[in-house]
């Protein structure tokens, strides 16, 4: 029988609150001392990834209660609804079917009475043909030169996913092609990209589901003009400009030949679109076979998420751990710490996946939530962060759970670099767990030659509380399959959290507001009239912009 009451008034929520009080002051040092098999107990493997979640402030009872919460919120039913194509994005009346894009099974997936799988597969075949023509030099630029550069123009989900996967899979790149990502509306960025390129050997991919996004259209028009001003002719545009969009009309009006437009569908959200033709620049870089392997990795994670029992379900476990900290410890941020140069764009992508999805404060039935939802996602690549923001992780007044992410083997095994990198990763999570007591700090200072009295005065500065939770997510080596599974893992973690919180993780009305307001402000900036109609601060800033135009 489905639970329909208030989440925070439910017995299981109250039991979790009581359990939190009982465990709050327990130190993980003691938990590890008491249970030598904690690593084996709180550990799961799925789709080529391994998760050690033993360094969390949990015990058996915690996990039992969290799984009970998931059951109360009908998580399994919600997961099935998402995969089957139900309109889980209620505010836009759409399904969220990014999983169909990597469905290697033989399940038909129906949207409005139509099986979408043939079109999905046909699009991958078109991508294959396109990649084949470009990479084998069958499709050339206007002067018959082969392409050397691809500029992908798009923003948000039409940028972050492909950018992440491209950098994550750099070892698989075809060295003859350079891929550039142009997202921000910033004259400096476009200038820096185009100044190094030759129009005759440059291919543009305009990536916009809506084909109405201000930044993308501005950048696309500027690239088009640059192409025409530097040797290209109108009739050459078709050879150099392609698009990925669900808005065929607008894309053709821009001048893209219809056969060069790859489809997007409104049942794929922007932040989940890497798996569609939005992945085209990536497919060009790594080849369609590797792109398919990426899809296969995501599919393996999909099947795990869809079929594994909650207790043995990696995305569900990560979702519940997040909920444990957000809702019962009052934590409001979560750090993503990849120990891999190639994964340096992961925090930025996950910021969109998580914060655009779960940055919501109203439930799907329109009620204001009385509990916290998605945390602030932040992070950066290790070990750089250790010499910067890790200070707050270790000694700040509040704690931020961390995900340490690392491949056990490097694509570039020079000397003992990788062992050093891994040792940094492991010792950071260990230090967050262990901390340093006042007695230990005193003993350390005395051992270093300080007298006891001075050591006692200095020691409080050196105390590290420890008991700060982290996950360690590891895998043998980055590969297309592993990266596919990793990205899908986080997509599902976020979706599962949204399902438990009862919010719609698939719309983004707050972001849409920014799109509307941006246009109004632009009109005011470009006029010389005294700005009015905005708040006093915005009026003042518009005026300042107008006055500073002669610098
Ligand atoms: O940033 C908001 C958003 O709607 C994202 O969800 C999307 O990925 C991005 O804008 C770009 O939109 P489009 O692909 O339509 O240009």
Automatic annotation (TrEMBL):
Gene Ontology MF, one: carbohydrate derivative binding
Matches recorded under InterPro entries: G6P_Isomerase, G6P_Isomerase_C, Phosphoglucose_isomerase_CS, SIS_dom_sf, SIS_PGI_1, SIS_PGI_2
Pathway this chain belongs to: Carbohydrate biosynthesis; gluconeogenesis; Carbohydrate degradation; glycolysis; D-glyceraldehyde 3-phosphate and glycerone phosphate from D-glucose: step 2/4
Pfam families for this protein: PGI (PF00342)
Entry's Gene Ontology cellular component terms: cytosol
Positions of the catalytic residues: 356, 387, 515
Catalysed reactions, semicolon-separated: alpha-D-glucose 6-phosphate = beta-D-fructose 6-phosphate
Keywords: Cytoplasm, Gluconeogenesis, Glycolysis, Isomerase
Enzyme type, top EC level: isomerase
EC number(s) per entry: 5.3.1.9
Gene3D superfamilies the UniProt entry points to: 1.10.1390.10, Glucose-6-phosphate isomerase like protein, domain 1 (3.40.50.10490)
GO biological process: gluconeogenesis; glucose 6-phosphate metabolic process; glycolytic process
Cell compartments where the protein resides: Cytoplasm
Role summary: Catalyzes the reversible isomerization of glucose-6-phosphate to fructose-6-phosphate.
Family: Belongs to the GPI family.
Name of the protein in question: Glucose-6-phosphate isomerase
Lineage: Bacteria, Pseudomonadati, Pseudomonadota, Gammaproteobacteria, Oceanospirillales
């Amino acid at each position: 029988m489905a639970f329909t009451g208030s989440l925070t008034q439910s017995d299981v929520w109250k039991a979790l609150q009581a359990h939190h009080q009982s465990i709050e002051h327990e130190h993980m040092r003691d938990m590890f001392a008491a249970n030598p098999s904690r690593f084996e107990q709180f550990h799961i493997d799925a789709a080529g990834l391994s998760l050690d979640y033993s360094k969390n402030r949990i015990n058996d009872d915690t996990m039992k209660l969290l799984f009970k919460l998931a059951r109360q919120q009908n998580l399994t039913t919600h997961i099935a609804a998402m995969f089957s194509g139900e309109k889980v994005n209620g505010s836009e009346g759409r399904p969220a079917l990014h999983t169909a894009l990597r469905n290697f099974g033989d399940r038909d997936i129906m949207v409005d009475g139509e099986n979408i799988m043939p079109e999905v597969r046909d699009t991958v075949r078109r991508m294959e043909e396109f990649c084949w023509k470009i990479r084998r030099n069958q499709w050339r630029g206007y002067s018959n030169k082969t392409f050397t550069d691809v500029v992908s123009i798009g923003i948000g989900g039409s940028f972050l996913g492909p950018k992440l996967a491209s950098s994550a899979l750099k070892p698989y790149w075809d060295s003859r092609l350079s891929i550039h990502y142009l997202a921000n509306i910033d004259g400096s960025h476009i200038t820096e990209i185009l100044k190094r390129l030759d129009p005759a050997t440059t291919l543009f991919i305009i990536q916009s589901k809506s084909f109405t996004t201000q930044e993308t259209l501005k950048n696309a028009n500027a690239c088009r003009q640059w192409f025409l001003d530097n040797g290209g002719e109108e009739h050459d545009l078709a050879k150099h400009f392609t698009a990925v969009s669900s808005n065929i009309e607008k894309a053709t009006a821009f001048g893209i030949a219809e056969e060069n437009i790859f489809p997007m569908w409104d049942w794929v959200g922007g932040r989940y679109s890497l798996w569609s033709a939005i992945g085209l620049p990536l497919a060009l870089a790594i080849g369609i076979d590797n792109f398919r392997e990426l899809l296969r990795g995501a599919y393996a994670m999909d099947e795990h998420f869809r079929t594994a029992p909650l207790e043995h379900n990696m995305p569900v476990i990560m979702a519940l751990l997040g909920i444990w900290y957000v809702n019962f410890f009052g934590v409001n941020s979560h750090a993503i710490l990849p120990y891999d140069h190639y994964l340096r764009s992961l925090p930025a992508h996950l910021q969109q996946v998580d914060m655009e999805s779960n940055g919501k404060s109203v439930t799907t039935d329109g009620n204001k939530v009385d509990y916290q939802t998605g945390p602030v996602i932040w992070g950066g690549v290790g070990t750089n962060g250790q010499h910067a923001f890790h200070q707050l992780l270790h000694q700040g007044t509040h704690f931020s759970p961390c995900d340490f992410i690392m491949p056990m083997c490097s694509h570039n095994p020079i000397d003992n670099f990788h062992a050093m990198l891994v040792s940094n990763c492991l010792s950071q999570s260990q230090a967050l767990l262990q901390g340093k007591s006042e007695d230990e700090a005193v003993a350390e200072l005395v051992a270093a030659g300080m007298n006891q009295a001075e050591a006692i005065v200095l020691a409080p500065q050196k105390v590290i509380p420890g008991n700060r939770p982290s996950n360690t997510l590891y895998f043998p080596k980055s590969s297309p399959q592993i990266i596919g599974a990793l990205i899908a893992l986080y997509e599902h973690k976020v979706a599962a959290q949204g399902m438990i919180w009862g919010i719609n993780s698939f719309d983004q009305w707050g972001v849409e507001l920014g799109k509307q307001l941006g246009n109004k402000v632009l009109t005011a900036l470009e006029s010389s009239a005294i700005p009015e109609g905005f708040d006093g601060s915005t009026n003042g800033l518009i005026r300042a912009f107008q006055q500073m135009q002669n610098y």
